[in-house]
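Key idea: predict the complex, not the pieces.
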Amino acid sequence: MTTWNTIQEDNVTGSYGLAADETMARRVGLGTSAATLRLYTYGPCALVGRFQTVENEIHVEACQKNNIPINRRPTGGGAIVMGDGPLGVALTLPGTGQDTYNRAREMMARFSQGVVRGLASLGVEASFRGKNDIEVGGRKIAGLGIYRDGSSGLLFHCSLLVHLDMEMMLTYLNTPFEKISDKAIAAMESRLTTVVRETGRPVTLEEARQALAQGYAQTFGVSLNPATFTPSELSDIHVLETNKYNTRDWVYQQADVPDAMGSAKLKTAQGLLDVRVTLAGQTIKAAYVGGDFFAAESAVADLEGHLKWHSTQPEAIKATLEKVFAKRRDELAGLPLEPLADTLALAIRQAAEMDAQDAALYNAYTAAQAG
Amino acid sequence: METPPDFPQDLYYDPRHHMWVRPVPGTQRVVVGMDPMGLDSIGELVYLTLPEAGEKVAQGGGMGTLEAEKMTGPLTSPVSGKITARNPQALKTPRLINEDPFLAGWMVELEPDDWAGESARMVSGKAVAGWVADETERMRERGWLK
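Result:
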């Protein structure tokens, strides 16, 4: 039977935690470290996805004021505030060596099964949601990501919400809400859930950690060997932490693909529609559908999940809306489809126009610099 | 993906990394991109970095990074040489690579160091159809094709 090392750590810094994950992906790919399942927690910190723009995702001033470090993951996806509520999972495995991408699509589904099985042992019926989330009844309980190192080593990242300080999250993350209010918290609670909430009991991080370890052992048919980092691994981690994760160049880098945000409101017979979108180029990174219409919150969250990483093309959006409305017809009966498609199109157009204005300002600025 | 689309026979393919290379007629340059099987594996591209003109890349080494729907990681260059251009449209709208992988979705142009030697290790010409058929069968056996 194959053996994986398991490493448990708590209260690590963002820079150390991320350097450790990337170092192990490289070393496992090179064959100088064993496959490792790391189950750990961070001290308070805000982490953005690989190409996100820090200023667009994080309230930087609030983080600085409260000494919350900001860092950038090697994996993709959205920003998250870590602390003693989310449990971090970092599974590092050698690549197969057969082909570089080796069906990342299937790997994501398979890697997520360790978490799903672990949650099932705690009595939580979770499932992998098409893109890169694990959900319970339409609410996100874990975010997932895969990073493939140049050595072919694989890093599977997961943040499992064991419990969550919603106010802290709203304080440090840039969300669709202008201020922290009961309405904002309620809206987030309808889209996110936690292990504690789903089980109805105070599940500890340790209990969740053991459940996930067993979930992975069963899913992959491996035995787990409790371990700590070797001196050589620690040395490599500290080098990468110093040279990459503790540098402004890494944390505050800018992508070529512009982020843009747009919003639109529309009064309909069924109530007000309030739609906000965040785009990366011509891809919807996140969508928020609010207002005063009547619809099941989990169905709205499901709809938003389907729009994540979606094309901005109106025809493609309409086709996706029709699919979700057909699946959850009764729960979405109070949400008018055509006006929703129109409002999404308006929000996307506004975001694209703002992006064009930003580009024009940038061009004027660079022309002035050149002059 | 249902079945892979037509793979042009006038391109050279790196079968391990699913990258393609097209010699530019009348020049010593080649253009590089990713083939539809590689793209289907990782999902829609959302972010992309590519080396700047003048930078050197090595066959099997890094050639920028990407974030797709399902993963982040380095792009692997199928050929060694010096970058002469990169596709600005693809950098700003990486989804273009998914939509038109063999033409508008090209990634970089470069001057190869040893085209004769390195292209001999790629799949090209009449061998393309057989390689695509084998890859299709492999994917079907694993349940990856609908």
